[in-house]
């Protein structure tokens, strides 16, 4: 029985009349050749069954297996010390540690307000020399735009901007809003107060857009004007709470959708200050990143933040292993927990 011929970089180079160096660069996604040549090399390698070590590692990562691969160094950039950042970080570290890779978290200073400062900071922290870069939500959009241009593999843990050529993954807040509205509607609620900033982050805007779309789909177009809701920034907490209490006491609403994490507890406080009760007087759905220990029975859609971190690691290893694959945008959809904060109304 004849042995199967071993396919090497030399084999592919000889068949395509290219240098071994060019074939190696093409399969690793490095610059220095035309896209036609790169595709030709990738297609021939696939036909011959050749895979680089990085591709082997990437395949194993997709199957969630432990593999012995070259340790790589990744960096995740975060703006502010937010709870969901810690959850993403945990998910990323779990998956990357399984494969022997290193993740370095970096907090972006609030002093970075222009491109020159950003470039200096990136150079000082060695970001350009990392094997890959994870970009989180809450980064300023101008900064995110510049970071997406860096010539290293990237995964965006956020909804991607229009025309962005990047792999991305996010917990699907649009789906969560639709599920929340569907649940409230099923319990008879037709007058639902939206509580949450609708600017400046994409995720905030998409939440509001989903609320409007869901309301229109359910025949509740009369509640889609932002002025009727509590949609402003809560920087001035006293003024924000005053507006919230006015809306809650108006008698126009039977339910509240608290669409931004960490605002549901303020809704509870406002309801209590009016001598009202949840759900006897007002039903509540809170979109929290995790269970609130003080309101463990709150009805809420599950936002899969930690799982998004795990999937981001897999997308990164997949991109490194297969640089020619099309970009993917992955949305993780969680279930809806009914809880005890929704009351049926007629």
SSE inventory with pairings:
Layout (H helix, E strand, L loop, with lengths): L8 H8 L3 H8 L7 H14 L4 H10 L10 E6 L4 H16 L3 E6 L7 H10 L7 E5 L4 H7 L6 E4 L9 E5 L1 H14 L5 E4 L6 H16 L19 H13 L5 E4 L5 H10 L9 E4 L13 E2 L3 H17 L7 E4 L3 E2 L9
Parallel strand pairs: 1-2, 1-3, 3-4, 4-5, 5-10, 6-7, 7-8
Antiparallel strand pairs: 9-11
Short description:
This protein is α/β, with parallel strands linked by helices and 346 residues long. It has twelve helices and eleven strands.
Question: How does this model look, in words?
Answer:
- It is a single chain.
- The protein is α/β, with parallel strands linked by helices and 346 residues long.
- 41% of the residues lie in helices and 13% in strands.
- It has 12 helices and 11 strands.
- The protein has helices at residues 9-16, 20-27, 35-48, 53-62, 83-98, 115-124, 141-147, 173-186, 202-217, 237-249, 264-273, 305-321; strands spanning 73-78, 102-107, 132-136, 154-157, 167-171, 192-195, 255-258, 283-286, 300-301, 329-332, 336-337.
- A 6-stranded parallel sheet has the order 2-1-3-4-5-10, covered by helices on one side.
- Helix 7 links the parallel strand 3 (132-136) and strand 4.
- Helix 1 crosses helix 2, helix 4 packs antiparallel against helix 12 and helix 10 packs across helix 11 (264-273).
- The longest helix is centred in the C-terminal third of the chain and has 17 residues, at 305-321.
- The chain starts with 8 loop residues before the first helix and ends in a 9-residue tail after the last strand.
């Amino acid at each position: 029985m004849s042995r199967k011929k071993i396919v090497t970089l030399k084999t592919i180079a000889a068949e395509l009349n290219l240098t071994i160096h060019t074939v190696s660069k093409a399969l690793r996604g490095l610059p220095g050749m035309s896209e036609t040549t790169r595709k030709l090399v990738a297609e021939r390698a696939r036909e011959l069954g050749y895979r680089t070590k990085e591709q082997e590692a990437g395949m194993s990562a997709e199957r969630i297996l432990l593999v012995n691969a070259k340790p790589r160094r990744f960096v995740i950039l975060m703006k502010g010390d937010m709870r969901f950042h810690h959850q993403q970080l945990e998910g990323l570290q779990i998956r990357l540690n399984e494969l022997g890779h290193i993740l370095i978290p970096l907090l972006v200073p609030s002093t970075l307000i222009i491109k020159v400062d950003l470039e200096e900071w990136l150079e000082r922290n060695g970001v350009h020399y990392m094997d890959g870069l994870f970009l989180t939500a809450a980064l300023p959009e101008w900064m995110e735009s510049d970071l997406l241009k860096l010539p290293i593999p990237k995964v965006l843990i956020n909804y991607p901007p229009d025309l962005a050529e990047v792999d991305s993954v996010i917990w699907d807040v649009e789906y969560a809003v639709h599920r929340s509205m569907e649940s409230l509607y099923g319990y008879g609620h037709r007058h639902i107060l939206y509580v949450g900033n609708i600017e400046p982050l994409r995720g905030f805007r998409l939440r509001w857009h989903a609320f409007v779309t869901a309301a229109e789909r359910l025949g509740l177009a009369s509640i889609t004007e932002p002025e009727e809701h509590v949609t402003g920034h809560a920087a001035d907490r006293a003024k924000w709470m005053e507006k919230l209490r006015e809306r809650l006491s108006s008698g126009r609403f039977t339910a509240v959708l608290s669409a931004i994490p960490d605002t549901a507890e303020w809704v509870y406080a406002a309801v209590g200050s009016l001598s009202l009760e949840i759900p006897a007087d007002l039903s509540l759905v809170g979109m929290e990143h995790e269970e609130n220990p003080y309101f463990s029975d709150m009805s809420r859609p599950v936002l899969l933040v930690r799982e998004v971190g795990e999937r981001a690691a897999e997308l990164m290893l997949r991109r490194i292993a297969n640089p020619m694959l099309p970009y993917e945008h992955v949305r993780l959809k969680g279930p809806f927990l009914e809880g005890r904060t929704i009351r049926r109304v007629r």
